[in-house]
Amino acid sequence: MSRVALAPGMAAAALLLAALVPAPAFAEDPPPSAVTDLVERAAELDGRRVALEGEAIGSPMIRDSGAWVNIADRSGALGVWMGAETARGIARFGSYGAVGDTLRVTGVFHRACAEHGGDMDVHADGTIVTAPGRPVAHPVPAGRVVAALALALVAAGAVAALAAFGQDRGPRTPPPGYPGSAKSS
Amino acid sequence: MTARPRLDDYRIILAYSGRVAIGLGAVYAVPLAVAALEGEWAAFVDLSIGCSASLALGAALASLMPREARPGWLHGMVATAVSWLLAMFLAAIPYRLSGHYASWLDSLFDAMSGFTTTGLTLVQDLDHLSRALNTWRHVVTFVGGQGVVVLALSFLVGGSRGGYELYVGEAKDERLFPRVAHTAKAIWKISAVYLAVGVGALWVAGLSIGLPAKEAFYHGAWVYMAAWSTGGFAPMSQNVGYYHSAVYELVCVAFFLAGSLNFALHHALMTGNRRELARNAEVISFTVTFAGLFTLAAWALAGSGTYGGIATLLRKGFYHVISAHTTTGFMTVAARQFAREWTPLALCAMILAMMAGGSACSTAGGVKGMRVAMLWLAIRNEVRALLLPSHASFRRRIHASGDRDLGDGVVKGAALVALLYVATWVLTTMAGVAAGYSPMDAAFEGASVTGNVGLSIGVTAPGMPAALKVVYLLVMWVGRLEFMAVLALGRFVLSAFGRRRP
Question: Are A144 and B215 within 8 A, CB to CB?
Fold first, then answer.
């Protein structure tokens, strides 16, 4: 069960709380590990409590008894199994148009989770938003638009010229096969 | 052609390559439509530059065809090799413009990886890629699976002379119909049927595992294109591990297994010849080698204790061995898990699976089941000949969409290609070791590159040495074309410096 179940609109409050109040309840939590560290030290950390901090990416996948949320840091990405309500409370997921909420997850790390078909995962028992996500704009450089238009005109002219003057020529006799071919020899 | 090529030789080769470029330009319509639909205008502009460059250059080159063209065997082979290089450059344009690749080399690497259906990637921040560019990556691998040249043959080259040489140059030698253009179109029709079924099945599977409807559709389309092409690209950085679902994995297996089968076999099944499935030498060869290698990998993994339960062991072992053997490259583990969690024996089974590969005239890479079957039967025939009286004779045949003679020439050809694959793998492994990687890591990644597989043990990354990126890029190209077209190009280049024709 997640320590903090987030509701829509509560992300900012949770962020403020996390930033201003060093909650005693989290004092015993381990420091965040990078995904790479978890992969490289999987045998050593198997079954132990870990912390992971990264961006929620893609989409939450709500299943019968919980939800998958994939979290990415600079070194890689890992699946986190958490309560469905907790997953629903995450306001923004990383995609082309957005940076997702940054989550700090604590839970038990599994090198090859027996419950989930051998996946490497973390079963979360605590999730907080440490930084809210944000939309990302992708402005189009004006110079690139001009270049694209000019090139499109050149392409249209070249294809039109080929259609007007080009021909398909030559006889139609196929030669025999080549070495290694099952049809040859 | 041992003498120095004439101007017309260059013009024929460039003209055919131009037609392939025009075909590629037409294919750009798919990601452009997605970009417009999704309002991803920055990606739209990048893709339109790639599209226009392909059409403009393609039209200019296609116009070079001489009036009295006499395309020959070598022209077709060389044009195929050149076409793949040209397609790589043209497909890489939106990659580089997107800002998701650190250099032109990385962009070219991914384009070649896509066309050759390898699936190794140097993309950065994949989880934030636009839908349009993700579509382009997967369309590239889908087109590469059927064959870049098959695309041009289907719609642009028609039945003209030179078509068959181009077709064979792309390592496809089955003719479903007498005319090669009809065969090329049949390949696309088979793929289109599976496209509709595959996207639908993965869409439903995506919905069932909790993906939103629109995401499920896009992921279904992308993953289908990569699966059918035995490509191995995926829209998220965790590859198929992102979905955390046995159902999704199984649907993927169904389609990449289908993609690894010979198009002639698909054609036979679609025209009612279902008995072919049980008699086909490639199917039998694949079944036997897969069963053996999966058993070996499972035994090795069971001994290591990485996967505690039998269910998890079978799921991880089965998925990755069949992904390797079909040369797909989908993964549900992190790359470094192979190095850290899998035993050397399990990795050896994976290397053998990657080298064996799928069927001839399919989207798969590797030595191919047909050649494995041919070599096995040839060895069996030799042993049988030794045991029989000297005057005794027997038929040497192999069944694959019809009985075929297994003469010395055929066996020699199969052995030659298999030998070239092994030699290339050895050299690629040595390149990896020279770059500082462990022999096992270098051998695993080398087999993945040579067999156009895409599984990674962690060597392929944006930070890897540039020289190794170039080696891998070239090996992907050579492996996909099964050497002949590239050897023909080498001979053509050498002959350019030879004596002039009388």
Answer: no
